[in-house]
């Protein structure tokens, strides 16, 4: 594994540099593959060794690299040492590289990359992740509930709600009520007053208000759980800010007892985080009527979670519009005396622009999921040589979700997200569809040839450039995981998996298994199995369920022949995944998705979809707002 090679290189460097090997391991990195030229396997950045140098004048980096390389010697692990621009490069013995990497991938399975020494210095941690945060009684979209909206919804249902509609389709009806009451409130100030009074009653524990809101909450969570399951997301806890209604009053009392609470002439209560009256550092924690605010309840929630979980780290995943809010929450916790506030982190993500929730002009996540599944099903059904799948609905949904997730994760989390159906279903290039296609094709190879060839591995049979490039790329997986764990950006994993899939596609064309000598075929199958394993691991980390189902054999109409494996099957599977469909045949299946309703080109996603960006498959303790 990469860390074994790193340690061997670090041990030799430590003898020359008189530094502990542990201090050098993270300075030794696997070299990214190059399409233009053969590259070394590992490199040491000499500049990183000089970062802590006490010399006022830094020596010439290139000269230092050459001097260091001259002091090092090749051994049973390192077969060649060279220098690059400010680096010392190491080439690993090719047969050892092949044997070690493939053995480690198969041996570690889903833990490959996570057992690296890059992670060994990190102690086990308990991490609480608050993400998704959908709004009670509202479908998944980008809107973030504020306290006044709670009151609007409670008042709106009393004015415009119907019990029958609430029973049959709770979220849809409550959203309709929400939109209608907002429109009415624009011209009727009395509605805003009623909404404020409803929220005040809720804070004061009015039984009728609490009962109505609890009902909205229960109905909402039932719907959220159903949609979460489609995304492969499962929670340890469902809790919302309204859960901390009473505890928020305790926070206000604590702030007052510490002399941090200040009353304004308007009757509100604020905390001056700057200590000198800087208006930009004033955080309002209580309304003039005594009711709490967002910040107050988030502080109460943080204190409660520390008491309950004793976490090492707590991460809030929300849109970037809440950046200042969480800065103030963390700062307030700190001045209240909670040193663990430094363990709280906000991970912001960009939002989709162009739609206004209050007008009801929004496309919901479930509509998007249904649309993706429908389009994929139509692609699959319209292929001329279709093979039947055991569960086409499930396959279509998994491929569609992969397309959505990869499009969402390719860039920086903080970047605003512009949704496009054309990009989601792009038939070629760096897409989630391509990842699923690659995984399914590699799985098909294992099913076709695995029983006869997966025995002893002859490493001498994997010295072609295509094989070496894949092995070098597999070396980097632990570094990619480590980098994503440090900056919490999934784009590193996405980029890695797309490159791995492209390498596999090239190798699949040139490294034939069928009709090759047994030792050659076996070695290549080991290589493809390792690629599929790492590809599956990475996809699961992103919240993508890999497609492994192989189309069953079916007789073609009018030919009397069956569809075989190999290249023909790959072409068919490619068509199934990539959407090379017969439009005429597709029309016979029913109207195209574009005719079902006028889908907009920009879709507003809620925090739930953006929560894919961090924690689809990790342990979670999320909450919802409201």
Automatic annotation (TrEMBL):
UniProt source species: Urocitellus parryii (Arctic ground squirrel)
Similarity comment: Belongs to the class-I aminoacyl-tRNA synthetase family.
Role noted for this protein: Catalyzes the attachment of arginine to tRNA(Arg) in a two-step reaction: arginine is first activated by ATP to form Arg-AMP and then transferred to the acceptor end of tRNA(Arg).
EC number: 6.1.1.19
Ranges where the DALR anticodon binding domain occurs: 435-550
Entry keyword Transcription regulation: no
Catalytic activity: tRNA(Arg) + L-arginine + ATP = L-arginyl-tRNA(Arg) + AMP + diphosphate
Stretches for region Disordered: 552-626
A GO cellular component entry from the record: mitochondrial membrane
Compositional bias ranges of the Polar residues kind: 607-626
PROSITE patterns the record matches: AA_TRNA_LIGASE_I (PS00178)
NCBIfam families: argS
Name recorded for this polypeptide: Probable arginine--tRNA ligase, mitochondrial
SUPFAM superfamilies for the chain: Anticodon-binding domain of a subclass of class I aminoacyl-tRNA synthetases, Arginyl-tRNA synthetase (ArgRS), N-terminal 'additional' domain, Nucleotidylyl transferase
Pfam families per UniProt: DALR_1 (PF05746), tRNA-synt_1d (PF00750)
Keywords carried by this UniProt record: Acetylation, Aminoacyl-tRNA synthetase, ATP-binding, Ligase, Membrane, Mitochondrion, Nucleotide-binding, Protein biosynthesis, Transit peptide
Alphabetized InterPro entries for the sequence: aa-tRNA-synth_I_CS (IPR001412), Arg-tRNA-ligase (IPR001278), Arg-tRNA-synth_N_sf (IPR036695), ArgRS_core (IPR035684), DALR_anticod-bd (IPR008909), Rossmann-like_a/b/a_fold (IPR014729), tRNAsynth_Ia_anticodon-bd (IPR009080)
Cell compartment(s), UniProt: Mitochondrion membrane
SMART domains assigned: DALR_1
One term of GO molecular function: arginine-tRNA ligase activity
GO biological process, one term: arginyl-tRNA aminoacylation
Enzyme class name: ligase
Coiled coil: none
Keyword Transit peptide annotated: yes
